[in-house]
TrEMBL record:
Any Pfam family: ZnuA
Organism: Allocatelliglobosispora scoriae
Leader sequence residues: 1-19
InterPro entries in the record: AdhesinB (IPR006129), Bact_metal-bind_prot9 (IPR050492), Lipoprotein_PsaA-like (IPR006128), ZnuA-like (IPR006127)
Entry-linked SUPFAM superfamilies: Helical backbone' metal receptor (SSF53807)
The protein, known as: Zinc transport system substrate-binding protein
Sequence similarity: Belongs to the bacterial solute-binding protein 9 family.
Length: 297
């Protein structure tokens, strides 16, 4: 219901914006204006675009991005951008805005890499959106973004390619750190607040046990809580992970029931208010947390 209301609100606002014509101009007309739907896409846009672009992020720090509702100003950012970078199916209001205002100047990153299946709020199979938690997939997306930016701004195409290659190398190094760091562990199961870590688990041979499905705001049923508690016991889990931007109460309840501790495992859907980290530093922090929780040598 929340997502339906968000979509209807966005559609109504879009009609008002369109009726009034162009509702804004980029902050710096000398730069390529990119509107990124949420943090990981803003991260790669800034790394690849460098000083040739100006990046606006729709999901603000401290806000959970799944059910984002767009303001008129943000709708104008979608309309005015030279390129909108988004993930179809992750943020319904953004999907609506892109279809209405940016169909000819958008890049759906979900179409660029193989997708995994997860579970939606009704327990049905659904495409897992959290693809950025596999550094190799994010590197592929970065390469495609550089090519698209080169088409938008041919004068800087070589620069975009060079920066994408550097980002690709950094992500390959991060991938190697994960592969090495998680290769010899006492446990492979990770009990998480919601099913945000499917790509990470798939890449590094872990088993994800999510309290909730793909949407962190849908509370698990008592039956699901009992199933997760039983799975945590059977796998010998010593840690129940909770996330930034989401309440830890349910994770704390399960941890108390099974005699485990809790720790933060960041899905990097957005940054916390005042955070000084970036995607790569947060991923490295996650690796340290995983190694301790899984008893890795």
């Amino acid at each position: 219901m929340r997502r339906l209301l968000a979509c209807l609100t966005a559609a109504l606002t879009l009609s008002l914006v369109s009726a009034c014509g162009t509702s804004g101009t980029p902050a710096d007309s000398d730069k390529v204006a990119i509107t990124a739907a949420f943090y990981p896409l803003a991260f790669i846009s800034e790394r690849i675009g460098g000083d040739a672009v100006s990046v606006t992020t729709l999901a603000q720090p401290g806000a959970e991005p799944h059910d984002l509702e767009l303001t008129p100003r943000q709708l104008a950012d979608v309309h005015d951008a030279k390129l909108v970078v988004y993930l179809d199916g992750f943020q319904p209001a953004v999907d609506t805005a892109v279809k209405a205002e940016a169909a000819d100047h958008s890049l759906d990153v979900g179409a660029l890499v193989p997708r995994l299946q997860g579970t939606d709020e009704d327990g049905h199979p659904a495409k897992d959106p959290h693809l950025w938690l596999d550094p190799t997939r994010l590197a592929t997306i970065g390469d495609a973004l550089a090519r698209r930016l080169g088409e938008v701004d041919p004068a800087h195409a070589a620069d975009y390619t060079t920066r994408a290659a550097k980002l690709h190398a950094d992500l390959a190094e991060l991938d190697m750190e994960y592969a090495t760091g998680l290769s010899k562990c006492q446990r492979q199961a990770i009990v998480t607040g919601h099913e945000a870590f499917g790509y990470l688990a798939d890449r590094y041979n872990l088993k994800q046990i999510g309290l909730a499905g793909l949407d962190p705001e849908i509370e698990p049923t008592p039956q699901r809580l009992a199933e997760v508690a039983a799975a945590a016991r059977s796998t010998g889990a010593t840690t129940i992970f909770f996330e930034t931007l989401v309440s830890p109460k349910i994770a704390e309840t399960i941890a108390k029931e099974v005699g485990a501790k809790t720790a933060v495992l960041d899905p990097i859907e957005g940054l916390e208010q005042g955070s000084s980290g970036d995607y790569i530093s947060i991923m490295r922090s996650n690796l340290t947390t995983l190694r301790e929780a899984l008893g890795c040598s």
